[in-house]
Write a structure and sequence with these properties.
The protein has about 280 residues and is an alpha/beta fold. About 5% of the residues have low confidence. α2 packs parallel to α5. The chain is globular and about 45 Å long. The relative contact order is 0.21. The two termini are about 30 Å apart. The chain contains six helices and twelve strands. Helix content is about 25%, strand content about 20%.
Length: about 280
């Protein structure tokens, strides 16, 4: 089973203001927004929140085959808001890292946050086939498998590595199965993708962020970002916000930063971005 790992609601009591993060302050100083950079999100779908303006370029439903954007879970809307929300509904207070990016939403998880590897692999193939049409440069995967079957892990890592080899930047969550060593979930366990952990969920009673090494003895995660009590867009009313925690929330922070880097220097390659991240490689 492929899913995002939900975090206990008790961890989501007090929200941080996203504008306090240094990762966003830096791109704001340079006035970078990720303009015209396409980000594909593999998640639970997306709600047409006011913060997304008219930047949802395409929505594909690999679960029920519906045509119009929807999110019957909320996870996908939240992650997209962290990377791409304009903050319009909150007067800029909950602005995403890259509010100029285009959104390509691929629904691969159901209302319970569960999915099948076949749907994920179909979505990855769709991205490769449509990357030029929609200007996709980055794939955000804030989900991972909870299965122990090595064949499932290999299928997922092979799938994302195929996307990586096509020249796209793949950013995946480390998963919330930590903090014990060897707890990175697939496809974040792939040696090729940029794997993101949560810097504020690594230690203490609330520690859940996945850690390496992977089965291939690769040091992971590649980078960490805030993931605890993050405020972002949620389904419901067009101006609704809500709080969630986990490496799922850390991942789009890094995705948004990469989008801004690509805006500034479109010639950057995925390999360049991976091996210049602050990883103990």
């Amino acid at each position: 089973m492929f899913r995002y790992t939900p975090v206990c609601a008790k961890q989501c009591v007090k929200a941080y203001d996203n504008k306090k993060y240094a990762i966003e302050a830096n791109v704001m100083e340079q006035r970078l927004t990720g303009k015209d950079i396409g980000i594909a999100y593999l998640d639970t779908g997306i709600f047409p929140h006011i913060d997304f303006d008219d930047r949802i370029l395409v929505f594909r439903d690999f679960i029920d085959g519906r045509d119009l954007p929807y999110d019957n879970n909320g996870h996908g809307t939240h992650t997209a808001g962290i990377a791409a929300g304009s903050g319009r509904a909150g007067n800029g207070r909950f602005r995403g890292v890259a509010p100029g990016t285009s959104i390509i939403s691929l629904k691969v998880l159901d209302q319970y946050g569960n999915g099948q590897k076949e749907d994920v692999l179909r979505a990855l193939d769709w991205i490769i086939a449509n990357r030029e049409r929609y200007g996709i440069r980055i794939v955000n995967i804030s989900v991972g498998t909870t299965e122990k079957d090595a064949r499932i892990h290999k299928a997922l890592t092979d799938g994302v590595e195929k996307v990586w080899d096509a020249g796209l930047v793949v950013v995946a969550a480390a998963g919330n199965m930590g903090p014990k060593p060897g707890s990175i979930t697939a496809p974040g366990s792939s040696k090729k993708v940029i794997t993101v952990g949560s810097c504020d969920l690594l230690e203490g009673r609330s520690a859940i962020s996945g850690r390496g090494p992977t089965a291939e003895c690769v040091c992971k995660p590649d980078i960490v970002a805030p993931g605890n009590k993050i405020m972002s867009c949620v389904p419901g009313k067009p101006y609704s916000y809500g709080v969630k925690s986990g490496t799922s929330m850390s991942t789009p922070l890094v995705t948004g930063a990469i989008a801004c880097a690509l805006e500034k220097n479109p010639a950057l390659t995925n390999t360049c971005l991976l091996y210049t991240s602050p990883s103990p490689r």
